[in-house]
Amino acid sequence: MGEKIKKIGIIAVILLDLLFLYLSFVSYPKQIRNSEQKISENQAKISDYKVKTNKLTYKSYQKVIRKKVSYLNLDNTENTLRKNYTEAITDAYNVKTEDEYNSKEKDIASKLGTDHLISTVLGKTIVQKIKGKDYPQSNGLNNVNVSFGKYNVDTQILPVNILVDYKPVVDDSSATETVNSKKVMYTFNYNVKDNLDGDVTFTELVSTK
């Protein structure tokens, strides 16, 4: 009896093995077919993407850019900023008395825009009066040049550089040589959409006789 049960057990194990083997043969090709189908679908999507990308011609790219900057006429913006900055810097570096400074301060500030550039320029050109005597920080402007970097469509940032060439005031009364030219640079990023300037970097460049 025991031998018979043992044989039945062996047969059952063999049948289970055969069943698993059959299922493997049936399901494995199906998995392969599913994988192949997914690969084909992905390849089709890639091909479709390439076709659409190739259709994005230079003209259509221009349309995309124009849509992004529909609020902006960059030439007008740069011309307006250049005019305002040039006039404000010219007035700021040419004032000689405290009264003149006070009378022009509001107009200078309005042309410079927001706080960062205003505070930096006015801080570098303020005229102080001590015991009735005016002490300007500039003996007059030689030249001012406003230039712009490449406009970033995504961040809406326009880099700005203002190069100022002016006649510095020499504090040392015993100096035998006159410095006729000192160059400084104001550098900052201007947000065109919001009309805001960022932090200003002030750099002293060179002084010449």
UniProtKB/TrEMBL annotation:
Residue ranges crossing the lipid bilayer per the database entry: 7-28
Keyword field: Membrane, Plasmid, Transmembrane, Transmembrane helix
Name used for this protein in its record: Uncharacterized protein
Species annotation: Ligilactobacillus salivarius
